[in-house]
Amino acid sequence: MDPLLLFIYIFLFPGFLFLFAYALTFEYLDRRIAARMQHRVGPPFFQPFADLIKVLGKEVIDPDGVDRRIFDAAPLIALAAVMTAYLYIPIVGISPLAFEGDLVLVLYLLALPTILLFVLGWLSRNIFSAVGGVRAVTQLFIYEVPFFLALLAPALMAGTWSISGIMVWQQQHLWCLFLQPIGFVVALIGLQAKLERTPFDIPEAETEIVAGPWTELTGRRLALMHLARDASLVCGSALVAALFLGGPQVPWVISPAWLGWIVGFILFLVKTLAVLLILSSIKVATGRIRIDQLNRIGWKYITSAAIVQVAIVLAMNYWWVRA
Amino acid sequence: MTEVIIPIGPQHPALKEPVNFRVVADGEKIVRLELDLSYNHRGIEKAAEQRDFIRVLPLLERVCGICSHSHTTAFAKGIEEIMQLEIPPRAQYIRTIIAELERIHSHLLWLGVAGHEIGFNTLFMWTWRDREAVQDTLEEMSGNRVHYGMNEVGGVRCDLTPAQVRAALARLPLLEERVQKYVGMVNEEETMLLRFRGVGKMTKQEALAYGAVGPTARASGVACDARHEDPYLVYAEIPWEVVTDTHGDVYGRTCVRIGEIQESTKIVRYCLEHLPEGNIRVATPKTAPTGECLSRYEAPRGELVHFIRTNGTDKVERIDIRTPTLANWTSVAMCLTGQNIADIPVIVAAIDPCLSCTSRITVIDDREKKKNAITFDELRERSRARWHAEERS
């Protein structure tokens, strides 16, 4: 790929600049959808942008006895991990950086913010943060297994470990949503838990432990961590859209190529927004469950469902897909 | 994790008012907890002794923002008993209507707060929206949304016009429909069932032993209700039932409160339809004879008790207010032991605590082992000194 084009792809469109704008728009839409369902007005469009700029400019307060360098670095690493993951997810057609195995890389990069939240909570020297951090990592162990299983099932079926490859396979066959409905549901639940949204906002349960690991974050640390989470919402939705809903690919050839890209981009927007709508509806329709209840439900039902889905995929591979 | 001490309050997102729990937790399980009350002593009882009966009612109304009518009714009822006044039936009906509307809006508010404590903000937004219908009715009747100022010693301040009665009746069907919806949500919404069932359990024996009152006790199967045991206003002559439940947990307390909303709606409808004609107040003497009275009143949160002693002047010699929250605190401490940290907010909220109404005595600093308690006479001296200083300035 032309270095200039690659530069534009990574930094401008559909790279980081678009990611930030879309992430904040996502936050706006999420809040707006929730507000309308709750019979409220909701924030104006520029609210997440204004909040980001405002919080970025606020004073950074160091809690007593905290290792400042790690405290400064953690939000940056979280944001960087999500931004890197984003580059491998197809936005307009196949990602130019795609390689065999990028799915595994993306999954681990998206797990990084949660680990960093735990680190932040543990370092904060604040009891609410510590409890929240422990909860965050406990929750990670519960949802990560079914989430990984559900997202690896399309890879098993397509016979490739590349997100773009799986997308191309779906273009030739059928959306994984129809082939693996159980996996799709598990992936959405896992995504909701990964993003710590109700009913899985256990690590930052406002009424119980103030803001969990976020309690001691101020100024740019808070702003960057917040941006990292909004960006993971986009990445997660785009990942689910790519693996289960065919991503930005159209089943037929559109010429000229630029028109195909535009159609693909519109498809990407529609599909990610559809995923967001489902996630927001879950958020509005439920209360927060307890960590012990999540443990029970997660291992008993969600993981079992994911394993059943993998078994079905293996059986389908044997008799139908590979046959 | 080893045992940790988690401080909750006096400032904490789950608490809208100051109280301090020091929760000793083993991981997520509560081992024991220490309760520290009275961060907000306001000296209302003392101030009430300095005002005559006309000026004491607005003061007592401000003990609590939610059950403002409860405090004035309890006081007016007690003083009227000492003065041996007979209140006209129309005034009694109007007092009952306001009291039951207050119960409806208090319980709707509670339901929203309970939803908020388990992170179910949709329920919070919806109940608070529907509560507006009740608030609007109260505003139409009294001119105020929070402190209605309806009570006077000897009757009520303003009459209900036929238009107001019609408007109030017109709002009731919508309210009933919405409450029916909440009954469905409480019984079917999965996350609410997970968080409410079996949480903060209290048996009937425990409820009796710890002296719980109101919906907290009724949810454990204790059919105590001052409106039934010691009928006042018009509760003896109108049809209504005491709502009880046998679950004994937060779910049971929710069921009792929702049942009471439905029961109160019926009472309001009955009273509005059977509003007798006549005067709304009687002439009252300026002073009350020497006497004592214990006035019981069923506030939305439970039984409210006003002890009033008069000495032949136009002021009370002593008024002592026992709010329902004070009666329910010990049961909360009992309910919380062995529960999950995550359940603290919802168990505390389940008694519908009103902390500032409860604060009575100054601080005892347990951490430094300094018992800084002062006797009642000292407190009296202190408040008196402040009062006189203010008088002079």
Can you walk through the features of this model?
- The complex is a heterodimer of chains A (323) and B (393).
- Helix content of chain A is 72%, strand content 0%.
- Chain A is mostly helical and 323 residues long.
- Chain A has one domain (3-321).
- In chain A, helix 9 (181-194) crosses helix 12 (257-285).
- Chain A is globular.
- By secondary structure, chain B is an alpha+beta fold.
- Chain B has two domains: 3-38 and 360-392, no CATH class; 44-340 and 349-356, Cytochrome-c3 Hydrogenase, chain B (Orthogonal Bundle), CATH 1.10.645.
- Chain B has 15 helices and eight strands.
- In chain B, the strands form three sheets. Chain B has a three-stranded antiparallel sheet with strand order 1-2-3, with no helix packed on it.
- The longest helix of chain B has 29 residues, at 89-117.
- Chain B starts with a strand and ends with a helix.
- In chain B, 47% of the residues are buried.
- The chains are: A mainly alpha (323), B alpha+beta (393).
- Chain A binds chain B through residues 37-40, 127-128, 130-131, 134, 198-199, 201-202, 205-210, 284-293, and chain B through 1, 4-7, 12-14, 28, 115-123, 125-126, 129, 189-192, 194-195, 340-345.
Report the sheet with the most strands of chain B, covering strand number, pairing sense and barrel closure: 3 strands, antiparallel
Largest sheet properties of chain A = none
Biggest chain contact: A-B, 29 and 33 residues
Number of strands of chain A: 0
- Tell me the number of helical segments of chain B per DSSP (H or I, 4 or more residues long): 15
